[in-house]
Amino acid sequence: MELNPLNQLNPLVIGAVIIVFTATYLVLRRWFFLPVIEVMESRRMRIEQAEGSRAEARRVVAEAESKAQTLLDAAKEQANVIVEQTREAREELKAAEMAAAQKDVERVLAKGRAAAAALRDVEQAKLRDEAVQCVTLACTKVIGPVEPSLVGSVVDRLMARKVQ
User: Fold this and answer.
1) 151: number of Cβ within 10 Å
2) CA-CA to 57 of 20 to 30 Å: which in 67, 73, 84, 116?
3) Where are the domains positioned within the chain?
4) How crowded is the C-beta side of 86, counted as CA atoms within 13 Å?
């Protein structure tokens, strides 16, 4: 028995193997390789489209972020202007209220001073009358009858010194 594999080759088996291999390849190609390649191509196209969409979305997001930052800066600036205007308005209102309060205080103070002066005048007149009566009574008891106008002038001079 010969162990050389080249001597054992049968051209009919080789032809059958080639035909079976070719038929298997054609069947696999038609019903397996072509659909798999088609799916892979479709998937590659969808990936490319998705990457393009992703790049476009990133560009749009970057533009939106830029616009948002610009709007935010403008809003902050406008808020600062409004805050400053509010502060100025508050200060103006405060100054106006202080001026009105000062006028009210001065008016009330003048009114109070006038009332106090009138009351002082009334009380001084009462005090003068009582002093004239007391001095007249005292003088009448000590030295006898006195002239009321003389007593009045003495009391007036005494009160003038004490008031000053």
Assistant:
1) 20
2) 73
3) 11-163
4) 6
Distance of CA 69 to the CA centre of its chain: 19
pLDDT, mean of residues 146-162: 83
The tally of CA atoms less than 13 A away on the side-chain side of residue 161 is: 5
Per-residue confidence (pLDDT) for residue 2, from 0 to 100:
64
Q: How many CA atoms are closer than 13 Å to the CA of 127, on its beta-carbon side?
A: 13
The CA-atom distances, in angstroms, between 125 and each of 51, 118, 156 are 108, 11, 10
Q: Taking residues 7-36, report their average pLDDT.
A: 91
Q: Contact at 8 Å (CB) between 136 and 146? A: yes
Helices 148-163 and 34-142 meet at what angle, rounded to 10? 140
Question: What's the pLDDT tens digit per position in 47-62?
Answer: 999 999 999 999 999 9
Please tell me the distance from the alpha carbon of residue 112 to that of residue 103, in angstroms, as a whole number: 14
State phi, psi for 154 to the nearest 5 degrees: -65, -45
Measured at the alpha carbon of residue 153, what is the angle toward residues 150 and 155, in degrees to the nearest 5?
110
Whole-angstrom distance, CA of residue 91 vs CA of residue 97:
10
